[in-house]
Amino acid sequence: MFDPKSLKAPEFIDHQEVLDSLAYADENKNNRAVLDEIIAKARQHKGLSHREASVLLATDDPEINAQIFELAREIKKAYYGNRIVLFAPLYLSNYCINGCVYCPYHLKNKHIPRKKLTQEEIEREVIALQDMGHKRLAIESGEDPKNNPIEYILESIKTIYNIKHKNGAIRRVNVNIAATTVENYKKLKDAGIGTYILFQETYHRESYEKLHPTGPKHDYCYHTEAMDRAMDGGIDDVGLGVLFGLELYRYEFCALLMHAEHLEAVHGVGPHTISFPRVKRADDIDPNAFDNGISDDTFIKIIACARVAVPYTGMIISTRESKEVRERALEVGISQISGASRTSVGGYVDEEPEDESSAQFDVSDKRTLDQVISWLMQLGYVPSFCTACYREGRTGDRFMALCKSNQILNCCHPNALMTLKEYLQDYASPITKLIGDKLIQNELGTIPNQKIRSFVEKNLVKIENGERDFRI
Ligand code: SAM
Q1: 105 C-alpha to center of ligand 1: Å?
Q2: 244 secondary structure, DSSP code
Q3: Which end of the chain is less congested by CB atoms within 10 angstroms, N or C?
Q4: Separation of 115 CA from ligand 1 center, angstroms?
Q5: 15-28 and 249-267 are packed helices; what angle lies between their axes, rounded to 10 degrees?
Q6: How far is ligand 1, taken at its centre, from the CA of residue 332, in Å?
């Protein structure tokens, strides 16, 4: 029985409710009156229900599709402006006791080299990341209580925050580790993590159980209810995601929105972010083995519909996707991207020979961070290394309030400009610096509040003179 307020996964992600919503979407995907009504609601920028958004995803009416893309662009601009937040993943360990059939870290894969970074190795990786200009990381690890216990993760977070090298600093560590207990989530919260990220992989229970045949991750309910435990443990910002390609995308999209509605209904705040990964080739993994791969066009439409459905949620795309796909995705809703990522354990310091790779999957966008920054700016975006909200305690509903009150231009935008300036001073190539300094000058004029504008102008000079870490 569908109940968004229930704490039981089969009730807040009720299978029948997903099926009924998809049937409703099929019945109405060409119904102009229903479509117009949903578009009119979406124009209020307050989001859509899983059913409404499912109708938009199902429609192939070209006029409605054009309106969806237009709205997605408009909503993104209204809430996120032209800022794009940058991050990088840091793989700590690929030891894993699960049997996920799409992931090369699965226990039965005997030819992938197993690696776990020592604290000294983490330090070297983080210095390499700082030297590129990164300020925000997402740590990744396989699930293995013996090799990667929570104490190892906590120690690693501490190590990362403590590394100060030249002007570098990692100011926000997001964590993508397996579902765990409330007690462990409390420990992660106390360690000062940013977002707790956990991909659902698939919301379809039967498929989930087949795709995760062995190991603790097999337990669908424990995995699906993880975000509730994380929030009970005091973590305000949680990040959802499904791995597109495993199941039918319309099912996943609908259930993903039901999960977001559930978090809002129970905890008063929806997901901080939603990630959009697709299955990729990897050691022992052929993405063609999964029947539900989606085309780039469908993928972009999913992103646009999500942007319209959850206007305040940050949306993330990784280097799994090519430059071309990322460019299209940025336009219709993505607000955070990774850059210059390595998905192997220790990959920022040591290039691994291809046949000995510990990588989790192939990356499509292999550009350097400098190239990514320069590309973003040439597309008219402001790359941002800002981590201010979380450091100022603006997490969970406080962040959402800022977003909803449209104060981004007076807060996030100035912070983006100041952190971009730091990047340009410390890490950019001469040509990127040139483009960036010009961009900052142009963007200063868009800060509505005069006091804030002059605060930023003064700080930009201070940054040129060597000071760092200003924020609103
Ligand atoms: N082990 C943790 C867990 O169970 O959630 C951490 C996550 S893992 C390091 C990060 C994510 O990579 C997974 O949640 C999965 O969605 C994704 N992934 C695994 N195999 C992949 C593949 N072949 N292509 C693309 N993404 C993949």
Answers
A1: 9
A2: B
A3: N
A4: 16
A5: 120
A6: 24
- Relative to beta strand 83-93, strand 382-384 is parallel
Contact present, 333 and 103 (Cβ < 8 Å):
no
Q: Measured in angstroms, how far is the CA atom of residue 275 from the centroid of ligand 1?
A: 12
Tens of pLDDT, residue by residue over 251-309, are 999 999 999 999 999 999 999 999 999 999 998 888 888 888 999 999 999 999 999 99
C-alpha 285, offset from chain centre:
23
Residue 366 CA, ligand 1 centroid: distance in Å: 19
Integer-rounded Cα radius of gyration of the chain: 21
Q: Kindly give the distance from the C-alpha atom of residue 192 to the centroid of ligand 1, in angstroms, as a whole number.
A: 23
28 lines ligand 1 (CB under 6 A): no
What is 109-170 written as a DSSP string?
Answer: --SSPP-B--HHHHHHHHHHHHHHT--EEEEEE---TTTS-HHHHHHHHHHHHH--BTTB--
- The residue with greater pLDDT, 111 or 252, is 252
Q: Is the beta carbon of 436 within 6 A of some atom in ligand 1?
A: no
pTM of the model: 0.97
Residue 198 alpha carbon, nearest atom of ligand 1? 5
Query: What b/e sequence results for 298-320 when a residue is b if at least 16 CB atoms lie within 10 Å of its CB, and e otherwise?
Result: ebbbbbbbbbbbbbbbbbbbbbb
The DSSP output letter for 242 is B
| Mean pLDDT of the 383-398 span | 91
- Distance of alpha carbon 33 from alpha carbon 210, whole angstroms: 40
459 lines ligand 1 (CB under 6 A): no
- Residue 123's pLDDT band, with cuts at 50, 70 and 90, is very high
Task: Tell whether ligand 1 has an atom less than 6 A from the beta carbon of residue 199.
Answer: yes
Determine the pLDDT at residue 349: 95
Structure tokens at 101: 């059939």
Residue with token string 């993760």: 153
Q: What is the DSSP string of 333-388?
A: T--EEE-S---STTTTT-PPPGGG---SS--S----HHHHHHHHHHTT-EEE---H
User: pLDDT digits over 17-28, tens only?
Assistant: 999 999 999 999
> Ligand 1 pocket, 290 CB below 6 A?
no
Tokens 């008063």 — which residue?
268
Is residue 282 lining ligand 1, measured as CB closer than 6 Å?
Answer: yes
Q: Is 91 in the pocket of ligand 1 (CB under 6 A)?
A: no
